[in-house]
């Protein structure tokens, strides 16, 4: 990643979870010729964002997520 992209990542990582999810959707939408995989990822991101915005899912902070992943 370029230093500019790394700086953007750090700024985006500091956003609340729902805003980061919305940013992911917009970035995926900005890809000029989305493949089937990218389109599928964008659809899934939109579904997850809608669920988060509706309060239908429990949001975890980084520490809790890593604890779940690590077992």
Quaternary? single chain
Helix content: over 70%
Estimate the global geometry from the Cα principal axes.
Answer: globular
How many domains is the backbone divided into? 1
Radius of gyration: 14 Å
Mean of all residue-level pLDDT scores? 88
How many runs of DSSP E, i.e. beta strands?
0
Please explain how this structure is put together.
The chain has 71 residues and is mainly α. The chain has one domain. Helices cover 72% and strands 0% of the residues. It is built from 4 helices and no strands. Helix 2 runs antiparallel to helix 3. The longest helix has 18 residues.
Short recap of the structure:
With 71 residues, this protein is mainly alpha-helical.
Topology of this structure?
Layout: H1 3-13, H2 17-29, H3 36-53, H4 62-70
